[in-house]
Design a protein that fits this description.
This protein has about 250 residues and is of the alpha/beta class. About 35% of the residues lie in helices and about 25% in strands. The chain has helices spanning about 35-45, 60-65, 85-95, 110-115, 130-140, 175-190, 195-200, 215-225, and strands spanning about 1-5, 10-15, 25-30, 50-55, 70-75, 100-105, 120-125, 150-155, 155-160, 165-170, 170-175, 235-240, 240-245. The chain has a five-stranded parallel sheet with strand order 4-3-5-6-7, sandwiched between helices. Strands 8-9-10-11 form a four-stranded antiparallel sheet, with helices on one face. The chain has a two-stranded antiparallel ribbon with strand order 1-2. Strand 8 (about 150-155) and strand 9 (about 155-160) form a beta hairpin. Helix 2 (about 60-65) runs parallel beside helix 3 (about 85-95) and helix 6 (about 175-190) packs across helix 8 (about 215-225). The protein starts with a strand and ends in a 9-residue tail after the last strand.
């Protein structure tokens, strides 16, 4: 059953009451000056466990898109301070290949062609059904890319982001929602050091107190669940830099 939401300016959004809880724990930027539309999108995407940032104007949105690593951008075309077309050009000139979905009241073919030619990946006309936007988001995130593979493996540790399951060898491992997101992010960056700042931004959506020991506590819990029963330790601390999942089994620092 669907819920129909009417927004100012005659915009109507239709959304399902039940949301798909399967998630890749990815980060999405919404650049939209209409607060009600922006809040609606943010709340629905967060309900699917995406980390979400919002910007109300083109200049700020362009800066955020160029200086942060997003997995997808939802971009309005008609914005204050800088148009969606200009924002899109800025992002591509900065060398960012982040998928961009344009939302706009402009429905003319030429408007769509201009946005697609300047680097947008998809174009959806307002008013729109949230279910359609949701499908387009998922379609873009499914594009061939090792970072969006639903099944991740590091040594004998396996994580299935679609089924929300983690196992090591033949043993299933229960992780809380945040522990799952943290483990997935580490695995997607296997072989690389992940800093506290990166974890704060991508897993905690910037909401954690930088001076708290929240991240350390979660790492400790994950280690107990993943490494306790195995001779080969996968999760390591790199002093002064962050954390790393090392598939070779070579201990860096514990």
């Amino acid at each position: 059953m669907a819920l129909v939401v009417s927004l100012p300016g005659g915009c109507t959004i239709k959304a399902d009451k039940c949301f798909n809880r399967s998630t890749n724990h990815m980060r999405i930027l919404i650049v939209e000056d209409d607060r009600e539309i922006s809040d609606f999108l943010r709340n629905n995407l967060k309900a699917e466990s995406f980390a979400v940032d919002c910007s109300r104007d083109g200049e700020d949105g362009s800066y955020m898109a160029r200086t942060h690593d997003y997995d997808l951008i939802i971009l309005d075309n008609v914005l204050p301070r800088k148009s969606g077309h200009e924002v899109c050009q800025d992002i591509r000139k900065a060398g960012k290949n982040t998928p961009i979905i344009v939302l706009s009241v402009q429905s003319e073919v030429n408007d769509k062609v201009d946005m697609l030619n300047c680097g947008a990946d998809d174009y959806l006309t307002k008013p729109f059904a949230y279910k359609e936007l949701q499908s387009r988001v998922r379609a873009l995130l499914r594009r061939p890319n090792p970072l969006v593979s639903p099944i991740l493996k590091v040594d004998d540790l396996m994580l299935d982001s679609t089924q929300q399951k983690v196992s090591r060898g033949s043993k299933d491992i229960y992780l809380t929602r945040k522990e799952f997101a943290l483990t997935e992010y580490l695995m997607r960056n296997s072989g690389s050091v992940v800093s506290r700042g990166m974890l704060m931004e991508h897993v905690w959506n910037g909401s954690v107190d930088p001076f708290s020991n929240t991240i350390e506590s979660h790492i400790l819990n994950i280690r107990k669940k993943i490494d306790r029963s195995s001779k080969k330790k996968l999760i390591h601390t790199v002093p002064g830099r962050g954390y790393k999942i090392e598939s070779s089994g070579k201990v860096i620092f514990d």
